[in-house]
């Protein structure tokens, strides 16, 4: 492999994917809308070519893909824009792959699986999404699979990590670092999984570099499941902030949604806070190798440190 195009290179996962590729000595075209962010993140990396453009402009995407072997699609948009934009963005990524004879590797979530009845989800599980957003993700998957482009689709649980700005767990960690009343979304007694974005990027790059991974779906689980209460204990051990978080429940999200269109779209996905979907990574470990697994203690510590640096507060205690 000579060169990889990363779409959404300034996002939480896209940024980690670019770093992982260049750590392996691979040339990267980093594509995103905001040139200032691209320059801030990658100007000092000699392996990165920066291209700013609009995913809604097909010509921009096709041009960025020139001479690339693989396109990694890690673009997302706010929930309220999914119906309007996600299909256009996917079709442009596919067209860019077709025009440049490139393979397409897609970062996806777990929404298309729907409810799973408490069992670990395997790739061959029949997808029966019951939400609007889950049905959109499944329709996008069908578009990819009928495109005649060599593809792989990687399903991830919720992200958290140094640059995962819009992740639900980062929302809580940010509130801790900012010395605000900490707020945690969902029942803190329920065991869920959150994947550390550098781990997710390592797994994604390993798939993208493996010819045999194409034509398949892959589940990339987190290191383990964890409860909110366990997360609170880990955070307290690093910050000495013993205050009890405010628990954000579905009713609160619904009420906020009366005034906020993004929160209005979050309501239907709240089932993931009540009936978590947990991924089975057996296939990946059998066919690709060991999954990258950073402990929650280390991942949260690194995330807190980065958020602290970004917000300009003092360092963590440990």
From TrEMBL:
<dbReference type="Pfam" id="PF13460">
    <property type="entry name" value="NAD_binding_10"/>
</dbReference>
<feature type="domain" description="NAD(P)-binding">
    <location>
        <begin position="8"/>
        <end position="157"/>
    </location>
</feature>
<protein>
    <submittedName>
        <fullName>SDR family NAD(P)-dependent oxidoreductase</fullName>
    </submittedName>
</protein>
<dbReference type="InterPro" id="IPR036291">
    <property type="entry name" value="NAD(P)-bd_dom_sf"/>
</dbReference>
<dbReference type="InterPro" id="IPR051783">
    <property type="entry name" value="NAD(P)-dependent_oxidoreduct"/>
</dbReference>
<dbReference type="InterPro" id="IPR016040">
    <property type="entry name" value="NAD(P)-bd_dom"/>
</dbReference>
